[in-house]
Design goal:
Layout (H helix, E strand, L loop, with lengths): L15 H15 L4 E3 L1 E3 L2 E3 L4 E6 L2 E10 L3 H18 L4 H17 L1 H11 L4 H25 L12 E9 L2 E5 L7 H12 L3 E4 L6 H13 L7 E3 L4 H10 L3 E7 L2 H12 L10 E5 L4 E5 L5 H13 L9 E7 L3 H13 L20 H17 L1 E4 L15 E4 L6 H4 L6 E7 L2 H8 L4 E2 L1 E5 L3 H10 L4 E4 L16 E2 L17 E9 L1
Parallel strand pairs: 1-5, 7-8, 7-10, 8-9, 10-11, 12-13, 12-18, 13-16, 15-16, 18-19
Antiparallel strand pairs: 2-3, 4-5, 6-21, 14-15, 17-20
Helix pairs in contact: 1-4, 2-8, 3-5, 4-5, 4-7, 5-6, 10-11
């Protein structure tokens, strides 16, 4: 019997021995820079002449790795290999499938700093953010192994019926297309992949083009653990080509996607079309970001509110789908909270996390993100008052953008409605709590939200009326813990697929009821 699930502890980087261990891992990973990685289909490595680089966003001239530039034909090959492997993997006992996840979790735990160091190089996370990403990946592996064991005993939940022998079986769906994002390139990639595999499905994984290196390392853990060939296939290439074909292929049974609203809604539409030869309606498991808000009223602990806003807005450069991009502050305390938020932001440091372990903000992910964020800062000059920040580096020297805050932003401004996915925060003045709640609900998204208040009736009202999938009171709105804060949102934030929650694996299975007359 497995011990109870416990979240993986974070590394205490105030301890010199932990700093040294991380630096040693980073030095080790640097020795691997420049390698070329293949596609892996049906257990076979396919090395292609055409490759693309994964760039270090802190030093864009440096390619940390090169990956095979796959085509639609490679997606077809991978889906066929996965379909063939499914015929045996689907009958593999649940305990065996769960053991693969536990073995991978143990190995990732042993090599924790190595995986985190790859993310410092490949996506520009600082050490604490990278460490939390790897800890969450371990959590997903441990948690989903236990949850699948629980689902395997679902017949005990049925109402007894004397005349029949009853069974309820959660059986796998089939071949899954797993398309994760770059912003949690270990945690989300591992979580979606592990959930699909432990449920008895086979997977074609297409990692984000900005972060294939850490995804490949994760796959290696499964392959080295002895996972049968074809259960986990690794295909890299352009999203619109490789990912598009994976979504449309008639043998794809489900799509697990985390990313932008634009791509997510396109997947949803394509997956709904029944292709020739398709025997099922494809299942879409989508998480698509947000325009997340923290409300602060006049009864709140204003220092705690300012701390929560800054941490939520600028952690990993504001590139979390749960990041606070709107602080909605009631009129009576607007100036006070704004001053404290500005003061805390002024203390943040921006720099290269590879070279400087103490930086708060590293680079944004790539040139496209850098340009988009700069455009929104220009828009902000016309929509609000620049309170701090607004500057950026020469992109040739790294994609660095200062934490930026605009005040007196109107609720319907572009800065208050559109997902920026960068270190840009809009402060919005509300007349009172009622108005603040109205503003908070006034976007097409519904992922995360927070309320700082010491008024119990207001908190209970927000519990009922603040329409987000993850709502937090008197704390930051980022940092959902596996098993503690099941994560997923409403409206255009996705299908409310609660990753890290007790019902998540149901999305990767189908229930079969069997009754035998006695």
């Amino acid at each position: 019997m497995l011990p109870p699930f416990r979240n993986e502890p974070l590394t205490d980087f105030s301890r010199p021995e932990n700093q040294a261990a991380f630096q040693a891992a980073l030095d080790q990973v640097k020795q691997e820079i420049g390698r070329t990685y293949p596609l892996v289909i049906g257990g076979q490595r396919l090395e292609l002449q055409e490759t693309f680089p994964s760039l270090n966003p802190s030093q864009p001239s440096q390619a940390v790795a090169h990956f095979a530039n796959g085509a639609a034909s490679h997606a077809d090959q991978a889906i066929e290999a996965a379909a063939q492997a499914f015929e045996t993997w689907k009958s593999t006992p649940v305990a065996v499938r769960a053991r693969f996840l536990l073995d991978v979790a143990a190995e990732m735990r042993r090599r924790k700093h190595e995986f985190s160091a790859v993310m410092v190089l490949e996506v520009g996370k600082n050490r604490a953010e990278a460490d939390a990403d790897t800890a969450e990946a371990i959590d997903f592996l441990e948690y989903y192994a236990r949850q699948m064991m629980r689902l395997a005993d679902s017949s005990s939940q049925l109402v007894p019926f004397d005349a029949e022998h009853l069974g309820l079986y959660y059986i796998p769906l089939g071949v899954g297309a797993v398309i994760p994002p770059w912003n949690f390139p270990n945690a989300i990639t591992t979580g979606m992949t592990a959930a699909a595999i432990v449920a008895g499905n086979t997977v074609v994984l297409k990692p984000a083009e900005q972060s294939p290196w850490v995804a490949y390392k994760m796959c290696e853990l499964f392959w080295n653990a002895g996972l049968p060939a074809g259960v986990l296939n690794f295909v890299t290439g352009p999203g619109e080509v490789v990912g598009g074909r994976m979504v449309e292929h008639p043998k794809t049974r489900f799509i697990a996607f985390t990313g932008s609203r634009a791509v997510g809604t396109e997947i949803y539409e394509k997956a709904s079309r029944v292709q020739p030869g398709q025997l099922w309606l494809k299942r879409s498991i989508l998480e698509m970001g947000g325009k997340d808000a923290i409300i602060v009223d006049e009864t709140a602990d204003l220092e705690a509110a300012a701390e929560g806003i800054v941490t939520s807005a600028f952690g990993f450069q504001g590139q979390k789908c749960s990041a606070c991009s709107r602080a909605i502050i009631v009129n009576d305390v607007y100036e006070t909270v704004a001053e404290r938020v500005i003061a805390r932001t002024r203390r943040l440091t921006v720099g290269n996390p590879v070279e400087n372990p103490a930086v708060d903000l590293g680079p944004v992910i790539d040139q496209e993100a850098f340009d988009r964020i700069r455009q929104y800062i220009e828009i902000g000059h016309g929509e609000g008052e620049l309170l701090i920040g607004g500057g950026s580096s020469n992109p040739e020297d790294g994609y660095f953008v200062e934490p930026t805050i605009f005040g007196e932003v109107a609720p319907d401004a572009r800065l208050a409605q559109e997902e920026i996915f960068g270190p840009v925060l809009a402060l919005i003045r509300a007349r009172d709590f009622d108005h603040a709640l109205e503003i908070a609900n006034g976007t097409v998204y519904g992922l995360t939200g927070g309320v700082y208040s010491n008024d119990r009736l207001r908190l209970e009202r927000a519990r009922e009326e603040f329409h987000v999938g993850n709502l937090y009171f008197n704390r930051k709105i980022t940092g959902a813990q596996v098993g503690v804060h099941p994560f997923g949102g409403f409206n255009m934030s996705g299908t409310d697929s609660k990753a890290g929650g007790p019902d998540y694996l149901l999305l990767f299975t189908q229930a079969k009821s069997v009754a035998e007359r006695l």
